[in-house]
Amino acid sequence: MTTMRERRVVFLDLADVESRQNVVQAVCEAEKHPNNPVLPVGDHHEWDSLQARPWEGRTVLYDEEARLFKCWYAGKDVGVERWWNTGYAVSDDGVHWEKPKLGLHEYRGRSDNNICLRGWGPVVKDVEEDDPARRYKMIVKGPPRARMIRAGYSPDGIHWTEEAQIDLPEWDGGAPDIVALIKDEQEADASRRWKMIWQAVLPNNKHGPERVRVKHIAFGPDMEHLTASADNPVLHPNDSTEQENHYLMLAPYAGQYVMAYEYGWYVPNGTGRFGMYCADIRLAVSRDGEHFSRVQTHQPLIRRGVRGDWDSGSLVIADKLVEHSDRMYLYYCGNGEDWTSWPGGNIPDDSHWPNTGALRLSQMGLATLGRDRFTCLETVDRETPGYAVTRAITAEERGARLSLNVSDGQPLRSWVEVEVLPAEGDEPLAGFSRDDCRPVSRDGLRETVSWRERRWDELDPEAVRLRIHFCGAARLHALNFST
């Protein structure tokens, strides 16, 4: 039996759209899980009784071999000292988490805990690694060598050994925060397959601290041999409307790249030097994994909670996208409004505490989207009709079946219709007009497009374009071409 091959056009940007009328691109807000926060903090006597979050410990992934969600998170107790360990947790469904007692590291004289590492950093499971002892990889920061970045390896993601120091010339001997680490399976150039993002600081052009965090990217054939991009920084708050951006998620996706980033601003309410720090999660995309463009900076991908919610203050995104069962899982750290004068440069000189972030509750939440539903095409007001025309699609690209990823459809109120145009000209091909198309008004990831008397696989071999008509609130996320 042969497996159906599928190519899809996901509207992360507008490069595949030739023209449009009354149609815009929008960011689709992820749905927060009703069980949030999904990873519980520990009991009052445990090492993660105050904070259990994907922040310094950055990674949640789905292990296809084990059929388990796995999480490496930063935890901290209720003491005033500023420190974190990395904890390990597993889940069958990504919602209900178990913290296994590993017996590896002592906390208050006992080792019946789930601490797997004294340092922290992002984790990758490398399924192509020949050495079983190096199947899991991490770029580690923190104790016992606090001012040194190094490579960590593990056979199981639990038992870690630390080896070579990693030191880029751009770090000038320092130890920056490592924001994201991926092995990019869609990268054709083996010398750029490993991608790592770190934080630096540069002058600010807005209200707030004199210097703000910016993101730099490096590439390499493995995580120990990385070269910084000549076009760094890859994300700078000076280039947009946010006042800060701290951590982010980086994911190769459908031949493109998705970056969900922490979009931060200061509310001038009298707390801190610049006001209360607030942040949600917004979206940037790229075609090459090096040059990113923000998408609709006024539209959150994950919105912070309303006053009184556990995540009403600021959000921090984990470093990886989790794809499972046609669903996209976005794990994030949520903080309440009691974080007030965080981050450090915002703390008044007369503060009793050197860093309020060491004293506040911080937990892990989950928000989800359907497959390919980061963005959509929709009409400007989701009422007045409009249309979008795609670029030319060759016979090799278009396959034998066309289906749409559509949401918010409703019969006789909200739907899309597709007509097929030649590569040049505005008259639809015979039998493929809008009047011939059966409206697609049902929500679905793969809703087949059909015409009354013609079939998609009957098209002649020349290139065609699609003119997609929108009525009402219907949203189009992607085109699917199957063979």
Give the key terms.
about 0% helix, 32 strands, mainly beta, five-stranded antiparallel beta sheet, about 475 residues, Jelly Rolls, about 40% strand, Tachylectin-2, Chain A, single chain
List the helices and strands and how they pair.
Blueprint (H helix, E strand, L loop, with lengths): L5 E5 L6 E5 L1 E5 L3 E2 L18 E13 L4 E9 L8 E7 L5 E2 L16 E3 L5 E3 L10 E5 L9 E5 L6 E5 L12 E6 L10 E10 L7 E12 L2 E4 L19 E6 L2 E12 L8 E11 L6 E3 L18 E4 L4 E3 L2 E9 L26 E9 L4 E5 L6 E5 L4 H4 L2 E7 L7 E8 L21 E5 L15 E8 L3 E8 L1
Antiparallel strand pairs: 1-32, 2-27, 3-26, 4-25, 5-6, 6-7, 7-8, 7-9, 10-11, 11-12, 12-13, 14-15, 15-16, 16-17, 18-19, 19-20, 20-21, 22-24, 23-24, 24-25, 27-31, 28-30, 28-32, 29-31
